[in-house]
């Protein structure tokens, strides 16, 4: 009886057989004109076979390749060799339900272990503190005995401060930090700092609250989560709405993100993970939250907020919102973008999307959903300038009727994107970085939400079809100055630019002052935090040359000057 061949055996047979099947690669090269390169399966498999013979790889470890899919050989390098060798790729972590890929096994010269809360080694798959030791691990702090004793055990195990688990195959997966921090898109927020701020702002409105982290599957990051015990039961809907509003405002100021907040029901309170001293464990709260223990608490809280907003609308004589077909479809997209249930999103026709937690990534996702449904191109600026469901539905309808032919001349081009229209203080005008887009300012606008100040941004031309870019810096400043005056006819003015935009802000400020207006504030956001590694990644002369060429194009729209001549003008 014939045995079934393995996939690897089939591949190796095909490597030595005639094969007419082929695939096409389209490398751009230095001419930027794509040419189709025909590669047969036999050629691809021969290349993989030769590479495997030259560099043997351990079969008991996941295969990780560093050549990206944008490279001509990326697909072959990333997948075929792993298939040829029969080693696991991401399938290992997917099959085990990991949200994040495991880090694998220890390298030579070091060993690792997971320690439970009682100081004993944890069981396989159990989460605990990660400790490492070996020839590669440092042995102590110089002339600092106290710090050394805190960091290392008597057996020279280094307490890393990370929490993780090691599976039955010896692969390490990290699950967080031992000290209680919330990692929001790589930014570490100390949980106790947020809790202290919440306790101060909420005062005696709640009996007790706890701030902990939970993982957002929509945003692929951790998020601030606040659970509180009400002072009395039942809690009036308006009281819940007031508490939620204060907590969201404070969280925006502290973290530039919106939190998940909910009141605990009486039946849930006995389930809280209290210590012998009455303290609430944030780690255990996270585990309960992600296990679904508080699902009904969240639902009850969202229903209360919806009832409160409906009651306020009735008192103010506002008719309940009955969205039309276009608004209803758009509302569905907003809910899908946020990856929440319809009842979880409190949204009126004039509610700004940025007030309910929209980020730049949400804008891109919403754009994609609308384009997929309608089959038209929806510019990002259309969403940025119309951040409410009602306004955006009207603009998308108009865009569809024009068959998406958005033609804008400089005379009619409006670069203004309104992040916050209301406020009694001097408006803040933000000017884009070199890329021309203003999505980078969304987080800043959220931080200024409680400042009672209009926040507006200026976006470069050239992003939409039939919309040319600016020809010169002078033309850019002309358009931006005119746009500012249309919205704010008189000073005092407040301007700020990000990186390249700081120069445009400076030139615009000079133009405003030349006509007798006061410029009270001129800011420069020039260096983002943690820029060192980014600069090292970009600091290649070829990138610098292309960057200078692009910037210098404003001085020579005809494109006739050489790169050297353009660089001389920039000196």
TrEMBL record:
<keyword id="KW-0596">Phosphopantetheine</keyword>
<dbReference type="InterPro" id="IPR036736">
    <property type="entry name" value="ACP-like_sf"/>
</dbReference>
<dbReference type="Pfam" id="PF00550">
    <property type="entry name" value="PP-binding"/>
</dbReference>
<keyword id="KW-0436">Ligase</keyword>
<keyword id="KW-0597">Phosphoprotein</keyword>
<dbReference type="InterPro" id="IPR001031">
    <property type="entry name" value="Thioesterase"/>
</dbReference>
<comment type="similarity">
    <text>Belongs to the ATP-dependent AMP-binding enzyme family.</text>
</comment>
<feature type="domain" description="Carrier">
    <location>
        <begin position="324"/>
        <end position="400"/>
    </location>
</feature>
<dbReference type="InterPro" id="IPR020806">
    <property type="entry name" value="PKS_PP-bd"/>
</dbReference>
<dbReference type="GO" id="GO:0006631">
    <property type="term" value="P:fatty acid metabolic process"/>
</dbReference>
<protein>
    <submittedName>
        <fullName>Putative Dimodular nonribosomal peptide synthase</fullName>
    </submittedName>
</protein>
<dbReference type="InterPro" id="IPR042099">
    <property type="entry name" value="ANL_N_sf"/>
</dbReference>
<dbReference type="InterPro" id="IPR045851">
    <property type="entry name" value="AMP-bd_C_sf"/>
</dbReference>
<dbReference type="GO" id="GO:0031956">
    <property type="term" value="F:medium-chain fatty acid-CoA ligase activity"/>
</dbReference>
<dbReference type="Pfam" id="PF00975">
    <property type="entry name" value="Thioesterase"/>
</dbReference>
<dbReference type="InterPro" id="IPR009081">
    <property type="entry name" value="PP-bd_ACP"/>
</dbReference>
<dbReference type="InterPro" id="IPR029058">
    <property type="entry name" value="AB_hydrolase_fold"/>
</dbReference>
<dbReference type="GO" id="GO:0031177">
    <property type="term" value="F:phosphopantetheine binding"/>
</dbReference>
